[in-house]
Specification:
With 225 residues, the chain is an all-alpha fold. It has two domains: 1-67; 76-225, no CATH class. The protein has helices spanning 2-6, 16-33, 45-63, 69-77, 90-105, 111-136, 148-161, 166-182, 187-190, 198-223.
Length: 225
């Protein structure tokens, strides 16, 4: 990075992901130097911190090149162009693809890697959201084509639930799309919190929709089986 910046090949300004990389890297150094004090409970913290530091490094590295920023920002924001397949229902198409990818394709991935994927996607969202709005000249801060918020909500459920059967995945998918589309029980109100920053407001309604979905999903599991 220092070499590329000295040659003016990349953006000279630091970005949020770069700062996150430094944080995870220093946290890893502290953890390694005091490894005996911090035992591993459910996850291997060393692996998590290492993956986050490396992941943030590579993503921030590519986002430091001005010519790559628009393409990468648009790709991340549309969940790797999945929301462009059918423009009338981009959220549903992306949710269907991401549910299938996480719960069926990556069903047996260890918890450490699930957490890393979720955190990296979260950092990308907060790093690229405003750039995505400027790139498309969107008048509102919740464009339909931006589907990384739905992806993050699904990734949260993927971390919490782990391995599931196809029937359970379908039930959770239907519940999530219901709450995300109709936005009852305060979901629509929370997405209009003008005091919050646009990136947080964009994400909060999807997280609340998934929280309601998980609550009802858990009730169905207990009483229906």
């Amino acid at each position: 990075m220092l070499i590329f910046r000295s040659l003016n090949w990349s953006n000279v300004h630091s970005i949020f992901l770069g700062k996150a990389k430094s944080f995870f890297l220093y946290a890893l150094f502290i953890f390694l130097s005091t490894h005996d004090i911090f035992p591993n409970f459910l996850i291997d913290f060393k692996i998590v911190l290492l993956i986050l530091a490396v992941g943030c490094s590579w993503i921030s590295f590519f986002l430091s090149f001005p010519k790559l920023i628009p393409a990468l920002t648009y790709s991340f924001g549309t969940t790797f162009l999945s929301s462009r397949l059918i423009r009338k229902i981009p959220g549903t198409i992306t949710s269907l693809w991401v549910f299938s990818l996480f719960f069926l394709g990556f069903n047996e991935i260890k918890l450490e890697y699930r957490i890393c994927v979720f955190i990296l996607l979260l950092l990308v969202h907060f790093s690229c959201f405003n750039s995505f709005l400027k790139l498309g000249n969107y008048k509102n801060d919740d464009p339909n084509v931006y589907t990384l918020d739905e992806t993050l909500a699904i990734a949260m459920a993927w971390v919490l639930l782990g391995e599931m059967s196809i029937v359970r995945v379908v039930i959770l998918f239907i519940l999530f799309r219901f709450f995300d589309i109709f936005k009852p029980l305060g979901i629509r109100k929370i997405e209009k919190q003008v005091k919050w920053c646009a990136s947080l407001r964009n994400l909060a309604d999807d997280f609340l929709a998934m929280a309601y979905s998980l609550f009802i999903f858990r009730i169905i599991e207990i009483y229906v089986g």
